[in-house]
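Morning F.,

Quick status update on the modeling queue. The single chain you submitted on Monday has been processed. Sequence for confirmation:
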Amino acid sequence: MTQTPTHIPPLAQRAAVVLIAAQIVLTAMYALNVRDLPGTRQFDMDGELNVPTWWSASLFLVAGLAALGLARCNALTGRPVAPWTLVGIGLFGLSLEEIAGIHEQVGVALGGGTEGVSVWPLAYAPFAVVGVWLLMKAVRDLPRPFAILGICGLSCYVLVLGVELSALLGEDAVTLAIEENLELLGTGAILIALGSELINRFGTLFVRTTGRAATAPPDVAAVVGAAPSDGIAAPAMPR
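Structure tokens below.
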């Protein structure tokens, strides 16, 4: 039986480099924004509807798509679908929340004020617990290296909540930069873990459906369009 690889594929490796480079650039631009350098207003990590917000929301969106892709792969191989589906929906919700800035309004409603909205983690704590439980349940479906990477990403979010709560005692540009970088790092780690497994599983499904190794990226549409009755559970014999 064809085994799914457990290494990070080249495409995911290149994506990781892009994510790290983007994070460095965003942090550098924020540092310039703190010094009121002209042209950096849209890089304020403490703001909304700007470049960092768009980037963060995009990471959540792509990670959600990867989770739904894994759910589809599981459907084709008779494995549990619900965990990855719920994780995907949750990541889509975080993408929406990031753009809409709902947590800001929640913080104000709870008495945080317009300049101190860090009380929102208290209201979000129950949802965070459920999210952690769902993701921990889902990552059990991943190979150990990817599961560890996903858990590391989740740990970054636990630290983010701690930093947010500590901001009640006073928040400065350094604290804010640490918080936002932890969030980006956590989302990036989860994205790479899910994306790597998705790419590897598509490659395995390609071998199973065609009976030959892919010398080019697999036909994703053909694989996703397959059904369990198409015989993908066992590899086809090469002719």
